[in-house]
């Protein structure tokens, strides 16, 4: 699998924390579930989701803090200096990384292998999305 050599750098706003995502994400798409909304205060969450071993923190692990949501099986992992979220976890302990963060850390370009393939939990959406991606409940 040539995909396994793909590497995508991420870092927080202040640069204290940096990491590398490796390989191909398990999932890439726009999530419309209530949990993402509740954890991150976004109308929907444009994500790439990775296995724990696909994310290596290369710098600033000691600066990372985690916020355990009070009733969801989700955590938000953020830089304690600038507050930027690096990723969140879900009930499967996946590393859920915002497409926006990766794009920002790659000079504004999101690699083809990370582009959203679908919308999911679309039945829970706040509003309709007019694009050509498949939409799943
Ligand atoms: Zn920071
Ligand atoms: Zn979600």
Description:
The chain is mainly beta. 9% of the residues lie in helices and 35% in strands. The protein has a single domain, classed as Metal Binding Protein, Guanine Nucleotide Exchange Factor, Chain A (Beta Complex), CATH 2.170.150.70. The chain has a seven-stranded mixed beta sheet. A hairpin with a 5-residue loop joins strand 7 and strand 8. The mean pLDDT is 96. Bound molecules: zinc ion (2 copies).
Brief overview, please?
The protein is mainly beta and 137 residues long.
Please render the helix and strand layout as text.
Elements (H helix, E strand, L loop, with lengths): L6 E5 L6 E5 L4 E5 L2 H7 L4 E6 L4 E5 L4 E5 L6 E5 L5 E5 L5 E4 H6 L13 E3 L17
Parallel strand pairs: 3-10
Antiparallel strand pairs: 1-2, 2-5, 3-4, 4-9, 6-7, 7-8, 8-9
Bound molecules: zinc ion (ZN) (2 copies).
Main attributes?
137 residues, mainly beta, Metal Binding Protein, Guanine Nucleotide Exchange Factor, Chain A, seven-stranded mixed sheet, 2 helices, 10 strands, 9% helix, globular, binds zinc ion
Text of the CATH class: Mainly Beta
pLDDT averaged over residues: 96
Fold-level CATH name:
Metal Binding Protein, Guanine Nucleotide Exchange Factor, Chain A
With strands numbered from the N-terminus, the spatial order across the biggest sheet is 6-7-8-9-4-3-10
**pLDDT under 50 segments (min length 5)?**
none
Q: Summarize the biggest pleated sheet.
A: 7 strands, mixed
- Give the end-to-end Cα distance, rounded to a whole number of Å: 30 Å
State the CATH architecture. Answer: Beta Complex
Please report the number of helical segments: 2
Strand content: 35-45%
Radius of gyration: 15 Å
Structural class: mainly beta
User: How many domains is the backbone divided into?
Assistant: 1
What bound compounds does this protein have?
zinc ion
């Amino acid at each position: 699998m040539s995909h396994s050599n793909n590497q995508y750098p991420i870092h927080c706003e202040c640069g204290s924390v940096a990491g590398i995502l490796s390989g191909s994400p398990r999932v890439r798409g726009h999530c419309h579930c209530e949990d993402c909304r509740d954890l991150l205060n976004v109308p929907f969450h444009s994500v790439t989701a990775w296995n724990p071993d696909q994310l290596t923190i290369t710098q600033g692990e000691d600066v990372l803090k985690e916020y355990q949501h009070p009733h969801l099986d989700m955590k938000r992992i953020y830089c304690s200096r600038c507050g930027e979220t690096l990723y969140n976890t879900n009930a499967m302990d996946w590393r859920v990384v915002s497409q926006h963060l990766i794009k920002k850390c790659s000079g504004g370009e999101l690699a083809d292998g990370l582009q959203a393939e679908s919308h999911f939990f679309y039945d829970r959406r706040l509003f309709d999305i007019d694009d050509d991606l498949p939409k799943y409940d």
